[in-house]
Amino acid sequence: MISIKNVTKNFSTVTALDDISLEINKKEIFGLLGPNGAGKSTLMNLLIGYLDADEGELVVAGEKVTRNNLESRKKIGLVPQSIALYDDISAQENLEIFGSFFGIRKNLLRAVIAENLNRVELYDRRKDKVKGFSGGMKRRLNIAASLLHDPEILLCDEPTVGVDPQSRNAIFDYLEKLNDEGKTIIYTTHYMEEAERLCSRIAIIDHGKIIAAGTLDELLLMLPYEQTIIITKNQLTEHKKDLFNKFGSLLNDQEKYELKPNEKLKLSEFYKTMEENGIGYNFIEVNKPSLEALFLHLTGRRLRD
Amino acid sequence: MKTVLQLIRKDYILFWHDKPAVSLTFIVPIFLIFLFGSIFSGVSNGPTGIDIAFMNNSDAKVAKKLESVLDTTQAFHLVREFRDDNGKMVPFDTNSIKDYIRKGSAVAALVIPKDAFTDTSMGLKLKFFYDPKNDMEMQMIEGILTQRVMTQMPGLFLTGMQHKAETFLGTDKGKSFNKKIAETVGKYFNVDTAKILHWASWHFADSTNIDSASSKSNFFSNLLQLDKEQLVGKEVSNPNATRSVGGWAMMFLLFTLTATSTSLFDENKSGVVLRILSSPVSRVHILWGKYLYNFSLGCIQLFVMFFVGYLLFKIDIFSNFFNLLLVIVAGALACTAFGMLLAAVSKTAAQANGLGTLLILTMSGIGGAWFPTFILPPFIQILSKFSLVYWAMEGFMNVLWRGSSTIEILPTVGVLIGIAAIINVFSIIRFKKGDLF
Question: What does the pLDDT look like over B185-227, one tens digit per residue?
């Protein structure tokens, strides 16, 4: 469905994308995971033909993508990272404006707008100015504006930035529904949880390079351990932290510590040590490792660094 | 106190990095102070080089003297020839000098008729043709002309007074009266009596030409009789409103189109441009769309302003309606190009608005929207010809004031379209090199 071959893009002295190749299949939700500045948005801009690649080739639904090829854009809907809407006009008027660029007949466009507003649960607010909407409502309208021409492919460039968890879940549900209906979705994020929840395949991008790609399971197999141990943060003093170093490397997150167990870890010894140091079981979880851990393993940095 | 100082320092740092704010705080006021100061504080030494079409048909020496006085008057530049249909420079005659004014090549013409000095018993009789397209300018021209004649040619007074006495008392008694007066003045002021008595003949050597036929008319008014004839704008119902509407309309149009052009920055920043470009729309489409929107809005705004002028001030916009539309279109085109240029050369909306304010006020000031250009310093008068406000005002005045035909306004319209074309080419180059999109 989407073929990206050896694509390189430079901005002055910065290489935003460095010899990237990806194949994205029809009807999949493909995640592009990486920290800010990794090159995710640049790749999105290349896919919609906003930018031209310096080297390489991008093909979308059989159409070669360039700045001058407007045909390929009819097959893609872009959900920009920012809320790309006019604040001072109504939701309906916004959609009428953006829909008109695709040459949809007026009557049909009205029906399509009504349908999309209903789907994002904004039909009742269609006559209200966008500036009165909450962040979540704006985000939903931002998505609806990208679907008016019924594109085969939806590019979502961090579409949940600044959204509360409830609205975020609503957006995820909506995207999953769209995927069920047959749309191919590329989803960029720097939140591993989002990629893990939504995406059937994920590419991890850093400094303009794809450093890993595959299904979540395939990616996690790249880690040298199969489990990760999460310890609630307020249970560990500096002294106690040292106790865990013999079991693996301890990563400091905002609300917890994540232990990457070494190969010699024996859970019985681990629990015994915890008991001896007064750390209850209730504050410990043994999980599958996360993409965060993989990113750290591959780059030596955290995703949000 | 230290905290307050740190807060002050913070504000200065932010201010200094906000270039539009710096320019609006310092550069714009400095320029306006210079401009107004030049006009009202005498730095420019009054108007200079106002073109006055001139024709001297008199052989009288007083006429020669007047011509030389006017020639050395800084405020005036006497134009004695015009270019005929064959492109040759030929001296004016009575018809051609009037046509010269009617066409707007100069705002005033002075003719010294053959009988300038014999036609009156008191002083000079001159013919003055004028186009009061600018009331202030016309009043100043008349004032300077009168002042130059009165102060530089005192002999006219003396000759007139002597002649009046002879007419009133009879030739013999009058001559005797004049002689006694001259002797008394000569005695107390130690001046040669003959010189006083024959001042005019000594000064102009032809005082014998004075005719007594009109000596009954008012003495002072006869010293300088300006036989005035308004050649242009006689039918204009509201001269003051007609004169000013074009300049103000252009200034506000420039502000409007600057704002709409720089909205590209806001659309780009919000991601709307990216969204639009993700649909089958190219950058060229966006620029054309913005250009034509601005152009149409400009035309509508100008028309509405003139129509309001018609409703409120009875400005006659319909008797030369097609040509008014032509100038509106050309003016809107030039203003649109200006707005797009600002978007092309600036990096942010704030920068474009700051630069726009500076340029609009400058162009309006030097282009004649606020006050007539003739009172500006000479080098600014030259600069004003590069201002689209100047040419738009010329166009509107030609249409509304002079009632010019389509062919007559073509040069002005051509200049406006030329300005738009040059700016557009430059803008396109800048848009291609720039990073607005």
Answer: 777 777 777 766 665 444 444 444 444 434 444 455 556 677 8
Size of interface A-B (CB pairs under 8 A): 58
Q: Measure CB to CB from residue A86 to each of B272, B280, B282 and give the nearest one.
A: B272
B280 interaction partners in chain A (CB closer than 8 Å): 70-71, 73-74, 101-103
Please tell me whether the overall predicted TM-score, pTM, comes out greater than 0.80 for this model: no
Task: Say yes or no: B266 and B168 in one domain.
Answer: no
The mean per-residue pLDDT over the stretch B379-408 comes to 89
- Same-domain check for residues B341 and B404: yes
In angstroms, rounded to a whole number, what is the distance separating the alpha carbons of residues A67 and A62? 16
B272 in contact with chain A, both atoms CB, cutoff 8 A: yes
The reply to whether B45 falls in a domain is no
Q: pLDDT grade, residue B3 (50/70/90)? A: confident
Residue B130 lies in a domain: yes
Q: pLDDT tens across A144-173, in order?
A: 999 999 999 999 999 888 888 888 888 899
Contact B270 A82 (CB under 8 A): yes
Q: Are residue B256 and residue B188 in the same domain, yes or no?
A: no
The domain that holds B72 is classified in CATH as 3.40.1710.10
User: B180 and B198: one domain?
Assistant: yes
Mean pLDDT in residue range B152-178: 70
Q: Which domain-ending residue is among B124, B153, B182?
A: B153
Looking up tokens 């600036």, which residue turns up? B346
State pLDDT tens for residues B257-290. Answer: 888 888 888 888 889 999 999 999 988 888 889 9
Residues of chain B numbered 275-314 and touching chain A (CB < 8 Å): 275-283
A5 phi, psi to nearest 5 deg: -120, 115
What is the mean pLDDT of the segment spanning B315-339? Answer: 93
| Mutant choice from B279, B282, B283 vs A, greatest count of A C-beta within 10 A | B279
Residue A288's nearest CA partner among A258, A250, A247, A243 is: A258
Residues B198 and B180 in one domain: yes
Chain A within 8 Å of B190 (Cβ-Cβ)? no
Contact B280 A102 (CB under 8 A): yes
Q: Are both B140 and B167 inside the same structural domain?
A: no
Do B360 and B263 share a structural domain? yes
Q: Quick check: ipTM above 0.95?
A: no
pLDDT band at A181 (very low <50, low <70, confident <90, very high): very high
Contact A83 B271 (CB under 8 A): yes
Residues 6+ apart with CB under 8 A from A50: A67, B274, B277, B278
Domain containing B65 equals 50-153
Does some domain include residue B301?
A: yes
Query: Contact, A280 vs A181, CB < 8 A?
Result: no
User: Given its phi and psi angles, is residue B50 left (phi above 0), alpha (psi -120 to 50 degrees) or beta?
Assistant: beta
**Interatomic CA distance for residues B251 and B58, integer angstroms:** 47
Last residue of a domain, one of B100, B125, B153: B153
Instruction: Return d(Cα B142, Cα A130) in angstroms, integer.
Output: 62
Number of domains in chain B: 3
* Whether residue B368 sits in one domain with residue B292: yes
Per-residue model confidence (pLDDT) at position B119: 44
Per the document, the length of chain B is 437
